[in-house]
Amino acid sequence: MDDVTLLLVDDERDILDLLTKTLRSEGFRNILTATAGDEAIRVSLEHQPDLIILDVMLPDMEGYVVCKRMREWTYAPIFFLTARSTDLDKLTGYNMGGDDYIEKPFNPLVIVAKVKAQLKRDRLLKRNFSYVPSVYEFEDFKLVETTGQLFVAGEETPCTAKEFKLLTFLCKHPYRIFSMGQLYRHVWGEESFGYENTVMVHIGQIRKKIEPNPRKPHYIVTIRGLGYKFVGERRFPNEDGNPPYD
After folding, report:
1. Which H/E stretch holds residue 245?
2. For the chain, how far is it from start to end, CA to CA, in angstroms?
3. Order of strands across the sheet with 227-230?
4. Where are the domains of the chain?
5. Three-class SS of residue 35?
């Protein structure tokens, strides 16, 4: 399990130690921990874990809020861990983007089994649709995530690491509005603290490279008062131009 990274979030050190020990005994080596919501968000941004186990009751914010924030940049499975057991609590967790709901007290071996089953499903999906996350092709440009290349009108176009990461994030989340603060958190890995203009400058540079008319952008549009939204008809590698799972 050396290729899998897990993030465990709980303010009770005994629970973190128990889960870490049990998961390591089952072959998981890369295990990160956090005891508060802000810390969990920073770790998730920096390390992009493959699966997250998240306590609902944290000292600085609810796990539901942490989950909602994480869903701005990750599709990694999130398991809620909590003593709350009402249907309303469970519905709240699922509506915030959670994938499973584990009640305390728990059997750590059951959690290990759930983790393994979820990761197995994820591996099968990635194998079946492995082309989906690597190439984003549109009428005027193509972005190849695995090689870090951007092609505009068939010609490779240089761009900075931050520009590439920002454009990749937008391509992965089409038709969703993101504030400049949200984009800064994802690309720079920290709160913006007044540096939102940095995002604006990078968006401007990206537009100059991919937009036929940067003054009237077609792909990265400004939603006044809210932020930016990526709009583009993606091309897929089959005859009818549609993804095979539609």
Report:
1. none
2. 32
3. 177-178, 227-230, 220-223
4. 5-128, 135-230
5. coil
148 backbone φψ class: left, alpha, beta (φ>0; ψ -120 to 50) = left
Q: Exposed (0-12), middle (13-18) or buried (19+): which is 118, by Cβ within 10 Å?
A: middle
| CATH fold for domain 135-230 | Arc Repressor Mutant, subunit A (1.10.10)
- Using CA atoms of 217, 223, 229, 231 in order, give the dihedral in degrees to the nearest 10: -50
Distances (CA, A) of 170 to 76, 186, 202: 17, 11, 13
User: Which of the given ranges, 1-10, 34-43, 98-107, 132-141, has the highest pLDDT on average?
Assistant: 34-43
Q: Which CATH architecture has domain 5-128?
A: 3-Layer(aba) Sandwich (3.40)
DSSP one-letter code for 158: -
- Residues making up the chain, counted from first to last: 246
Give the residue among 32, 97, 36 at the shortest CA–CA distance from 69: 97
Element (H, E) at 71: none
**Span 181-215, pLDDT tens digits:** 889 988 888 776 777 789 999 999 999 999 999 99
Do the domains spanning 5-128 and 135-230 agree at the CATH topology level?
Answer: no
- CA 35/CA 38 separation, integer angstroms: 9
Q: Which residues of 166-182 are buried (b: 16+ CB within 10 A; e: fewer)?
A: bbbbbbbbeeeebbbbb
Residue with tokens 């390390």: 47
Amino acid at 12: E
Neighbours of 101 (CB within 10 A): 18
Give the number of other Cβ atoms within 10 Å of residue 245's Cβ. Answer: 9
H or E element, residue 66 = helix 63-70
